[in-house]
Specification:
169 residues; alpha+beta; Umud Fragment, subunit A; 2 domains; four-stranded antiparallel sheet; 2 helices; 11 strands; 21% helix; 32% strand; elongated
Length: 169
């Protein structure tokens, strides 16, 4: 009877290990091919996203709308940026601020003035097919399309779907 109980315990333990491994493999496949997760270390999206906030993004949706947050790699570092213009839009940054297609943009979540960078790209800029123009919310020192130009959507990692406010709520 003890031998039968021992076999049952080992059988149950082996089943548990197999189930845990299946869950881990499933999680890895989902986060590798469908979703991505990383911890933000970039202050350029403050106050929407703070340093240390975990970000979850969907890799398969690269049809961005104005206002969407996307994840991209710039010089080997991940960034989250806000889409402010899409293919066909004409972007200009004047003394008054951000203009898209000749209209001044009223961005309620942005608290800093949008200015050109001396070493940045030339304006006005027409966003080409398959590209988006992105800006950081902390506009004073953000590394964004004002420096590296419009971003090819195929080179982005995906659309932000969740931001977890880790601290300082």
């Amino acid at each position: 009877m003890d031998k039968q109980r021992n076999n049952s315990v080992w059988h149950d333990l082996m089943n548990l290990v197999i189930k845990i491994m299946a869950i881990v493999v499933t999680f890895m496949v989902i986060t590798t091919f469908f979703y991505g997760v990383y911890r933000n270390s970039d202050p350029d999206m403050f106050p929407k996203i703070k340093d240390g906030d975990p970000i979850m993004f969907y890799r398969l949706d690269k049809e961005y709308a104005i206002g969407d947050l996307l994840v991209l790699d710039f010089k080997g570092e991940r960034q989250v940026r806000r889409v402010v213009a899409r293919a066909g839009d004409i972007v200009d940054i004047t003394e008054d601020g951000l203009m898209v297609n000749g209209a001044m943009q009223q961005e309620l979540e942005i608290i800093e003035k949008t200015e050109r960078y001396a070493e940045g790209i030339a304006f006005p800029l027409t966003v080409q097919e398959g590209q988006v123009f992105v800006l950081g919310d902390a506009r004073q020192n953000a590394s964004d399309s004002r420096i590296y130009g419009a971003v090819n959507t195929k080179d982005t990692l995906g659309k932000v779907i969740t931001v977890v406010r880790w601290r300082n709520m």
